[in-house]
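haha ok so turns out i had the wrong file open the whole time. this is the CORRECT one, sorry everyone. sequence first:
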Amino acid sequence: MKKQVLFIHSAGPQGPNQGSRGLIAHLQEQLGEAYHILSPGMPDPDYIPWKTQFANEIKAWDGEVLLIGHSLGGSLLLKYLSEEECQLTVSGLFLIAAPYWGKDDDWRSEDFRLPDSFATMLPRISSLYLYHSRHDPVVPFAHAQHYAKQLPQAVTREYEGDDHYFCEGLPELVDDIKRL
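then structure:
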């Protein structure tokens, strides 16, 4: 049976060579036939429509799932998992360049903001990973540091470059997924 992977993409256009498309293509290629990757198109980047779309997507899933959130997709996953009842068994949560809303002046969306105690409200997640470039031009590296403090069980992967979209792939993500 194929392992189920649900990838929630970044905000913005998701056409060819845009947004999370390169990263998703790389994952599909590198993970191969043993994995079923679904990356649904998400509506305009407001929390309620994204939450509704995500809730509709997971209704059809059962058993264990690996969840990947890229940028705003990572924010959605943490917010949803910490506030909503989820019947899925999340065997891995992978957050790539996810913004931590409310931690600096440029990231103030109340819709995506997490409560201070969000980490205690998450369901049991076997493996949790954070991936972030030190010089990310979109989401500052400090956001990954905030998450690392709140989620000490997470494995944090830091990159010296300035990549946000990881269009050429993220080999460590592939390796981490395959190890589960």
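The chain is about 35% helix and 20% strand.
again sry for the mixup
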